[in-house]
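Hey,
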Amino acid sequence: MTSARRRLWLGAACAGAVGALLAAGRTAWAGAQVEEPLADAVRTALAAAIAEQAPPRPSFENIEERLAYLKWLSAASERLKRRKADHHTRVEFLEALWYESKRAGLEPALILGLVQVESGFRKYAISVAGARGYMQVMPFWARLIGDGDVHRLFHLQTNLRFGCVILRHYLERERGDMFLALGRYNGSRGRAEYPNAVFASRRQWDIKLA
């Protein structure tokens, strides 16, 4: 398949996914990252970032940071309640998302906005292109930088870690341009619909701690 036809096919796939989700009444915009060759150094760095062990709970250097985090967690949990009714499930999700977004140098509000747009906060969401989980990670990433087990992409922290590491990779490739990085994440680089949707959703999760 030529690159031009591949882009047309991917565009049609994304459009089909959007149409199907809208028809089903779901607030999600499932994407499809495009598999691209990775330099050995990049693949090694991404694989190391995925494989590093994470603590079950975030740790803080001082009480002020911990109090700010707890305030964020409480406010975010309240906003997420209508989408995730179970308190334990909701808090576990937010704890993992906060940790993985901070670890990757990304805003939790942005990642919450991305999850809302990509999967509608559905843990087992699968797009027509095969993207999986909360952050709609394509299976080829499990082969490129993971252990090859595609089913692990449904694991909460694994999915969030892959998604955050991949977005950070795209952000670095786009030299800090989040608009283009988000487009690349969704497989729609250069188009405004998806980045604008994520930025709009992000505003819903922008929790002021002052």
